[in-house]
Amino acid sequence: VPMVAPGNVQVHVINSTLAKVHWDPVPLKSVRGHLQGYKVYYWKVQSLSRRSRRHVEKKILTFRGNKTFGMLPGLEPFSSYKLNVRVVNGKGEGPASPDKVFKTPEGVPSSPSFLKITNPTLDSLTLEWGSPTHPNGVLTSYILKFQPINNTHELGPLVEISIPANESSLILKNLNYSTRYKFYFNAQTSVGSGSQITEEAVTIMDE
After folding, report:
1. Number of domains the chain contains
2. Do 19 and 88 reside in the same domain of the chain?
3. pTM of the predicted model as reported, rounded to 2 decimal places
């Protein structure tokens, strides 16, 4: 098997899900056989928005021939990763380069995990929601937009409210009685807004 690990391994993080890794080629005589390519082993060490320590799954990408760089797609935003590089010949893999640590930046969050609308009264509705399964960063706020829908399914004026990120419920007051409302709800990080979920609910006609 090859004797030497690739040197000077560098990682350039391109965005929250993509990084480029490059390395110096090993001396050909140290390959001790036919150079087949380089393998990059990489794995997520931890999510920076959660403290969960999961089973670590190593991923491997193979770059054929005498390439000295490669792309790592499909990374998770706002996470800490490690990687190393090995050279491959027909017999197997050489030693691993020293582990290199890199971090991906924040991304936009996934949609809130649920939105429930309960306790209708004449002029209020109670909203409850769950935080996004994948925050992909530090949540800065939730954005709630809502508008009335009349009997001919026309949409009325849109109202927008910003809600602190640590809240999980809200009582909306001063609504019109016996009116259907449409709600649009999403979470935000400093990067931007995640995908929204929508819900409809009706205030009651009379107590």
Report:
1. 2
2. yes
3. 0.83
